[in-house]
Design a protein that fits this description.
Length: about 80
């Protein structure tokens, strides 16, 4: 269900966090195959297309990701 994120909740702001296959499997210690990651991306594609902000997290620390999100929120609601 591509729009499940809209059915579960109706967010005012949608922030999509992107991570490559190698980074996501390393961070979460997942035993995924590339096909598993690709399937997750397929399932999340609708949310990605409708996101207000997309953050590529590969080269960022958790603190940097948070700061990007907070900066965006301050920008839209000063």
């Amino acid at each position: 269900m591509p729009a499940m994120w809209q059915k579960i909740t109706k967010p005012d702001i949608l922030i999509y966090l992107k991570a490559s296959f190698p980074v996501s499997t390393r961070r979460r210690k997942l035993n995924w195959q590339k096909e598993d990651h690709d399937e997750q991306l397929r399932r999340l594609d609708h949310a990605r297309q409708h996101a207000n902000l997309l953050i590529d997290t590969d080269d960022l620390t958790p603190e940097q990701v948070l700061q990007k999100a907070l900066d965006y929120l301050k920008e839209i609601d000063p």
